[in-house]
Amino acid sequence: MYSSTPDDWREANRARWDERVPIHTAGDYYDLDAFRAGKDALRDFEIAEVGDVTGRTLLHLQCHIGLDTLSWARHGAAQVVGLDFSEAAVEAADVLARSLGLPPERAVFVTSDVYDAAQAVPDSAYDIVYTGLGALNWLPDVARWAEVAASLVAPGGFLYLAEFHPLTDCLDDATGSTIAYDYFSRDPWVDDTPGTYADFDAATVHNRSVEWQHPVGEVVSALAAAGLRIDFLHEHDATLFARYPALARGADGYYRFPDDRPRIPMMYSVKASRPVSG
């Protein structure tokens, strides 16, 4: 925990997410009707890099309303467990799971702070521990996260992380072409912007948020220090939203810089395994 971390960081963030759950479940961004009809919430590179999940158990840390979690169940996972600190999000995920006809033992959702995950989930270890995009920035201590996440990986299993690349938060907002912010900053970002990425114009009351930037090296080193073997670190030249005005949406749905602009990594993914023995 950094000395400048506000004492109310967890409570402020939880109130913010609790308020946004009904906005997310009702809006077009997550489009729950399309999801119920079979739309996959996972990104193509995640599916390819994680590989076949048939018959495996999967724990999704910081699952929000569960679309990614339930997508892994659709891809054949024997059991998925989603964990989030927002009780409202967990309730919404559970309702969604039941609407898909998944029995409670196949799709389990629990409310817990991610740092307390080992005490909250139904089993001591999982074949796959998954963390999706936009999760680590809400945590002040990535080393502690890595220790908890690694402890939940079964021997022979692996952790898979997909995240937005922290380099994108260092470039100027107007053009994305110059370094404007410190890549190695450990200071929290405290913001009070209303609305949500799913609906910028939504009327909201709980707008205070506290976030952190975690350099890629810090994340990978934390996973290695927690006893996992790094299988790969992949950097991707695309992102999911128009982070800068110059980005254009391609036919594959990802946003990239035009061909006349140098490329930078805007997302990254890591796979880290726990050996069967040793």
UniProtKB/TrEMBL annotation:
GO molecular function: 2-polyprenyl-6-hydroxyphenol methylase activity; 3-demethylubiquinol 3-O-methyltransferase activity
One Pfam family, short name: Methyltransf_12
Keyword terms: Methyltransferase, Transferase
InterPro entries per the UniProt record, alphabetical: Methyltransf_12, SAM-dependent_MTases_sf
Domain of life: Bacteria
GO BP terms in the entry: methylation
EC class name: transferase
EC identifiers of the protein: 2.1.1.222, 2.1.1.64
Methyltransferase type domain span: 59-159
Protein name: Class I SAM-dependent methyltransferase
